[in-house]
Amino acid sequence: MSRNVSTTFIAAANAQETDEVIICLLTVTHDDLEAPIYLSSNATTRLSEDPLVYGTESRGEQYFYLPFEFTLPDDQSDNPPRVQLKMDNIERSLVAILRSFATPASVLMEIVLASDLDMVEITMPALQMSDVSIDDHTVSATLVADALINEPHPAGQFTPGSFPGLF
């Protein structure tokens, strides 16, 4: 699967050293949340003085800085895309929010460059948060792109009781 990304992004991703910063922006939504949670992997700018908050402003939205590592999925056709997230367990309110969810949260993942925060290079919509593990130091989560992986296949069976006209 090919992606249309800028030559600046390709050069930054493939360079051994670069001044360009690749930033991951996450938009977490759930029915139990009043408003989406916006997170950034980079402290691009100071968003407020009191309290002191850093983050990234992109397309008019403020994404709060929460240091996390992410692994982009590979483009294999036999597996649904999976994104691995790992963050330090420093914000206890995030743990309380994650534990309050009874159903998976939806996550929109966008990759931007620090030189052009309004230009989205890669978008991965409709990711479902799964396999969340929380310990004393880290919070790890897997974002799965294909929610149909949990559906039974085949969904129904062609039996004489269900489809008498076939037999």
TrEMBL record:
InterPro entries according to UniProt: DUF1833
Pfam families in the cross-refs: DUF1833 (PF08875)
Domain of life per record: Bacteria
Protein name: DUF1833 domain-containing protein
Biological source species: Rhizobium esperanzae
